[in-house]
Here is the input.
Amino acid sequence: MSANDELMTILEEVDVLVAELRELNENGPHFRILHRFHAPSTDCAPGEEVAGVYLVHRDREYFLRLSLSLRLLFDYLARHTHLPQSATQIEAGIRAERFYTEHATAVTAPLKFTRSIPRSFVRVYMERLKSALADVFQKAGLSMDADRVLVSQDTVMNEVGHRLEATFEWVHIDPERPQAPLRPNPKA
Amino acid sequence: MYQLLLIDQNPIHAKHLTAYLRRRGLAVTTTASIEEASGELQRRTLSYALVVVIAPELPEQWLAVLRRLKRACRRTLLFHRPLFLFISNRKCNPHLRLRIERMGARYVRER
Here is the structure.
């Protein structure tokens, strides 16, 4: 192999890293949200559980250490990336969507395994979410600022709008076949 | 334009590689030693998006080198870390390669 070929090997790898940087800068990191207790042919239906959230980086999954409240909040923000929402809007949105009010009711009694997200808690939850994101980025060796992924934008008044800047996919597990491979949601 | 820090002890190799990288639109800074590179990363971590390490001879040193460079980045800012590309013409055993990649660096064998 010639010296030029050797250099080309390096350059090809640099190209891959540059592509990775561009993609991260343009789209943000990629997350996989796992929904459990899924009934066949009803993706993201009320009754399912948001079982876990993973950062996907270089084809490896890194688990985000999120409590139930934070998993619900993350799932909600992931579904509404186009709209920065204030604490009041988040509280109202989660109360209005049956997916959250009937969370995990496929296997538990109503209201046993869900959380409302009170407006007054949103600020604290956002800080905890950012802390979990920073933690997982560090674990994955990913150069990413949590503030750039969970963006809190001031409005012209006092209100702050929150939104996630990233890409997402939802995968579902059927209760009858827990051993079945994870299926990407075509809507994602 | 992304800025790249190239660490290469061979000046002729570094010169050729720098020319190719610049042609790809990258801004390249070259250093010949790990010490110099650590200092540069401590001073200007935010400037660099990529760090390419042409690995020193002995595989036993590689993890220490990588750790030192990553530590240099961490001193300035918690969240900004450039992407690392680790290149060697030595064969790397799978265990070592796995450890390098678990540190977030990409390993490539230059054939």
In short: Chain B has four helices and five strands. Residues 18 and 28 of chain B are 6 Å apart (CA to CA). Chain B has a mean pLDDT of 86.
